[in-house]
Amino acid sequence: MDVHISTSTVAGIARAPPSKSYTHRAILAAGYSDGATVYDPLDSADPRATMRAVEGFGGTVDRPETEGSLEISGFDGTPEVPDDVINCANSGTTMRLVTAAAALADGGTVLTGDDSLRSRPQGPLLEALDSLGVRATSTRGNGQAPLVIEGPLAGGEVDIPGDVSSQYISALLMAGAVTEKGIELNLTTELKSAPYVDITLEVLEDFGVVAEPVGASGADGVRSAGAEGFVVEGGQQYSPEGGTYHVPGDFSSMSYLLAAGAIAAADGESVVVEGAQPSAQGDSAIVDILEAMDADIEWDRDAGEITVAQSDLTGTTVDVGDTPDLLPTIAVLGAVAEGDTVIENCEHVRYKETDRVSAMATELEKLGASVTEEHDVLTIHGSDTTLSGAAVEGYHDHRVIMSLSVAGLVAEGTTTVTGADHVDISFPDFFDVLDNLGGAVDRTE
Q1: 219 contacts: CB under 8 Å, gap ≥ 6
Q2: Are 286 and 217 part of one and the same domain?
Q3: Known catalytic residues?
Q4: What is the per-residue pLDDT across 157-205, written as a single tens digit (0 to 9) for each?
Q5: Are residue 236 and residue 253 in the same domain, yes or no?
Q6: Which of 246, 277, 295 is the last residue of a domain?
Q7: How many alpha carbons fall within 13 Å on the CB side of residue 294?
Q8: Which amino acids are annotated as binding site for 3-phosphoshikimate, given as ranges?
Q9: Which of the listed residues 246, 279, 307 is the one where a domain comes to its end?
Q10: Residues 218, 284: one domain?
Q11: Which helix (H) or strand (E) holds 70?
Q12: Would you state the pLDDT for residue 66?
């Protein structure tokens, strides 16, 4: 599907979808338990991949039609050897979290995914599992899927880098809690995306599991910031209070709605985003970033509502070491802002569904933006930019697609984004929401 966005204004109330990051972890945590109900999960392609994995390991996932919940019967810390290959589709989170779960099974598990997922790095996690006594290999010998994992994993001490993917750490912490010995992780490099590990720690705590960072500074309220490692004791039981867990709203998805309001809200009106209760999500930093760019924005944390109006934005400098998923949104804001917007510490953003640094630089230039791309820095020269509608590539990447669609609201004329159906990964109703807010949206197959 292609989507065509014409110059338009937006206003009204919208609700962000549930958090994809929390949904993944909650589904798998329920799988590690003997059973739990997950309320308000995100129903999209990526979490469905994690559901399939739980079922592959011997659990069951039932979806009552009217309750907005998942009834999960878990494998109680001991996954079965799957009858078939586990297809993680396009979900990197699924593959990494499930790779460690597969290591607990007393036998072999094969994990694969689509073309994009089979190009993403898994090597450090495979090496860590191998050093813990698990046979963990890439069938092509390149550290990429398809993967073959043969357990069982008993636990132990292991070194792992922290600057490739925080999901490696999350995967080992979740699995380590049900091993015999537990797992002690020593980080060999600085931890990137620390708030995502905080999400894992928060979900673990809600499921009655204790894991702790070692040597962390806790800077800016991020519990894992500056951590030298992590420790999780073995022999723990996943068991949420009352057998239930509620998924919070997703700030990564909110960022597109907030950006739309900041650059395209109708005169005298605003966009109100509901479901914005505070949590460990690092991407809530989008509020601070918009404030730094002089946006007219207000967050009522008690009500869980963020209100934003069209604003004369100014450029700023943002370090996305902990918030990689915000890069596409920030890049679009920078194209509308006065002055330069400098996005620093972004090398790891090149290893997502696509190289998002290069993708955003290339496609924004097609729309008329002035961009300087370096390996670890992306600079958007807003003062030298006038956005005009054009045909742009979505790279089969939900975050690139949604960000470019927001840019289309203020580009002169019509912007066509290809492969727009891939928003199903995290925000299936995105274009309906944008349309309901007043955006001029047309879809073609």
Answers
A1: 225, 226
A2: no
A3: 325
A4: 999 999 999 999 999 999 999 999 999 999 999 999 999 999 999 999 9
A5: no
A6: 246
A7: 12
A8: 20-21, 25, 165-167, 193, 325, 352
A9: 246
A10: no
A11: strand 69-73
A12: 66
- Buried residues in 202-237 as b, exposed as e (16+ CB within 10 A): bbbebbebebebeebeeeeebbbbebbbbbbbbebe
pLDDT in the model for residue 384 = 98
- Is the previous residue joined to 324 through a cis bond, with omega within 30 degrees of 0? no
Shared domain check, 162 and 179: yes
Residues at the annotated binding site for phosphoenolpyruvate?
20, 92, 120, 167, 356, 399
**Facing residues of 229 across strands?**
186, 214
For residue 255, pLDDT beyond 90: yes
Residues 82 and 9 in one domain: no
Count of domains forming the chain: 2
Q: What is the Cα–Cα distance from 269 to 323, expressed in whole angstroms?
A: 29
Which residues are known binding-site members?
A: 20-21, 25, 92, 120, 165-167, 193, 325, 352, 356, 399
> What residues have CB less than 8 Å from 421, skipping those under 6 apart?
1
Q: What local confidence, expressed as pLDDT, does residue 34 receive? A: 97
- Burial of 115 from C-beta contacts in 10 A (0-12 / 13-18 / 19+): exposed
Same structural domain, 216 and 254: no
Supply the angle between the helices 194-206 and 20-32 in degrees, to the nearest 10. Answer: 40
Q: Does 230 share its domain with 267?
A: no
Domain range for 218 is 20-246
What is the C-alpha separation between 243 and 40, in angstroms, rounded?
15
Token look-up 């011997």 returns 58
b (16+ CB within 10 A) / e for 169-178 = bbbbbbbbbb
Task: Indicate the pLDDT class of residue 116, thresholds 50, 70 and 90.
Answer: very high
Beta-ladder partners of 147: 111, 138
Question: Residue 306 sits in a domain of what CATH number?
Answer: 3.65.10.10
Per DSSP, helices labelled H in 220-299 are 251-264, 285-292
Please write the tens of the pLDDT for every residue from 369-403. 999 999 999 999 999 999 999 999 999 999 999 99
Average pLDDT over residues 336-352: 96
The closest of 22, 25, 322 to 171, measured between CA atoms, is 25
Same domain (yes/no): 214, 358: no
